[in-house]
Design goal:
By secondary structure, this protein is of the alpha/beta class. The protein folds into two domains: 96 residues, no CATH class; 177 residues, Rossmann fold. The C terminus is likely disordered. Strand 3, helix 8 and strand 4 form a beta-alpha-beta unit. The longest helix has 22 residues. The two termini are 18 Å apart. It is built from 13 helices and five strands. A five-stranded parallel sheet has the order 2-3-4-1-5, sandwiched between helices. It is globular, with a radius of gyration of 22 Å. Helix 10 packs parallel to helix 13. Bound molecules: adenosine-5'-diphosphate (ADP) and magnesium ion (MG). Adenosine-5'-diphosphate (ADP) binds next to helix 5 and helix 13. InterPro entries: P-loop_NTPase, TniB. This is AAA+ ATPase domain-containing protein. It comes from Microbacterium suwonense.
Length: 315
C-alpha cells in the first residue's frame, strides 16, 4: 500500500499562497484496510497511514450545518448586489463563543467564493485575480493594522512608508482590492478590534470597495468592538449569523444532531468499522459534547487517536 503524505507549506491563511493551500487541502481518506493488514504494516507506513486518517478527519470530513446554508445564501446575494451599490453595502457577521466552528464556516464560504470565481474565470490566478482576501486580527489591533494586512496580502513585496496616514493606507487597500477583483474580504478574530477607529475604517472600506466584508469573531454583536457606539454602524450594515449549540429536545435539533453523528459514523476511517455504533449513541454524544459540533468533532478525533493507539499496541 502506498500512502501519500500530505505536505503543507504554509502556516497561515493570511497570505495568498497560504489561503490557497488552506482552500485546496482536502486530502482523501486512505484506503480501507482490515485489522490484520493494519497490524502487518511496518511502523513507518503505519504512522503514515494514521497521519492520513487524521488529515482526512481534520481537513476533509465536514458536516453540513444550517448556518452554512444560511450564510452561503446571504453572502451570494451580497456579492452580486454590493458592486451595484454606491453606498449601504452589506456585509456578514459570523459570531459565536470560542471554539464553535466560526473559522471553519468562514473557510467554507471562502472556498465556495473562490471556486465559483474559478468556474467563471479559469485563468483567474494567472491573471492575478484574488477573489478572496483573508486577514486575522491580533490582540488590540487597530484599523490601520487591518489595512496593512490587506495590503500585504495583495502586495507582499510592497514597503509602506512608516509615517503613512490611515487615509492613504485605506486608499491603497481599496485600490488593490479593486485591481485584484476581490469579492470577499474575511476578517477573522474581529473581536480583537477595539474602539471606534477600526469600525470607521471598516465602514469606509465598505463604502469605497465593492468587496463584501465578512467579520468573524467571538460574540461580535454584543462585544465591545461592534456591540456599541461607532461599532453599531458596522453591525447595522451586516447580516448576523450566530452559531449555537444544538438542542435535541426539539425534533429538528435531534434530527440535525443524529445526522451529524451519522455522517461521522459512516465516514470514520477506522479498520473494519461497522457504522451504527456512534449513531446509536447520538444522545450520549450530545451530552458529552454539550450540543456543540466542534466538541463532537473533537471527541471523534480523540476516538480515532485512541483506536489507532490500541491497535498499534496490539500489533
Ligand atoms: N462543519 C463542521 N464539520 C466538522 N467539524 C467541524 C465543523 N465546523 C467546525 N468543526 C470542528 O470544530 C473545531 C473548531 O472550529 P473552529 O472553526 O476553529 O472554531 P472557532 O473559530 O469558532 O474557534 C475545528 O477544529 C473543526 O474540527
Ligand atoms: Mg476561529
Amino acid at each position: 500500500m502506498i500512502v501519500e503524505p500530505l505536505i503543507l507549506h504554509h502556516d497561515t491563511k493570511t497570505t495568498l499562497p497560504g489561503l490557497r493551500e488552506a482552500l485546496t487541502a482536502l486530502p482523501a481518506a486512505p484506503p480501507a484496510i482490515t485489522f490484520a493488514e493494519y497490524t502487518a504494516l511496518t511502523a513507518s507506513v503505519r504512522s503514515l497511514y494514521d497521519e492520513a486518517r487524521d488529515d482526512y478527519l481534520r481537513l476533509t470530513l465536514r458536516v453540513p450545518t444550517p448556518e452554512q446554508e444560511l450564510s452561503t445564501r446571504i453572502l451570494a446575494k451580497h456579492i452580486i448586489s454590493n458592486p451595484r451599490r454606491k453606498n449601504s453595502r452589506r456585509g456578514l457577521m459570523v459570531s459565536a463563543p470560542m471554539f464553535y466552528g466560526k473559522t471553519e464556516l468562514a473557510l467554507l464560504l471562502a472556498r465556495s467564493v473562490e471556486q465559483d470565481h474559478a468556474k467563471k474565470f479559469p485563468d483567474y490566478a494567472d491573471n492575478g485575480e484574488v477573489p478572496v482576501v483573508w486577514v486575522e486580527v491580533t490582540d488590540h489591533a487597530t484599523g490601520k493594522a487591518l489595512l496593512s494586512q490587506i495590503i500585504r496580502f495583495l502586495a507582499p513585496t510592497i514597503t509602506l512608508p512608516t509615517q503613512i496616514t490611515t487615509d492613504n493606507l485605506r486608499r491603497r487597500a481599496v485600490e488593490l482590492l479593486h485591481v485584484h477583483h476581490t469579492k470577499l474580504l474575511v476578517i477573522d478574530e474581529a473581536h480583537n478590534l477595539g474602539g471606534s477607529e477600526p469600525s470607521s475604517v471598516i465602514k469606509a472600506l465598505q463604502n469605497e470597495s465593492s468587496a463584501t466584508v465578512v467579520l468573524v469573531g467571538i460574540n461580535l454583536a454584543s462585544g465591545k468592538a461592534f456591540g456599541s457606539g461607532e461599532g453599531l454602524q458596522v453591525t447595522m450594515r451586516c447580516d448576523l449569523v450566530e452559531l449555537r449549540r444544538v438542542d435535541i429536545r426539539t425534533e429538528e435539533g435531534m434530527a440535525l444532531w443524529r445526522r451529524w453523528v451519522a455522517i461521522f459514523d459512516r465516514n470514520l476511517p477506522l479498520c473494519e468499522h461497522i457504522p451504527g455504533t456512534l449513531t446509536r449513541n447520538a444522545p450520549a454524544l450530545h451530552a458529552a459534547a454539550d450540543g456543540r459540533l466542534s466538541v463532537l468533532a473533537m471527541i471523534i478525533e480523540r476516538l480515532m487517536g485512541l483506536f489507532g493507539l490500541s491497535v498499534g499496541v496490539m500489533g
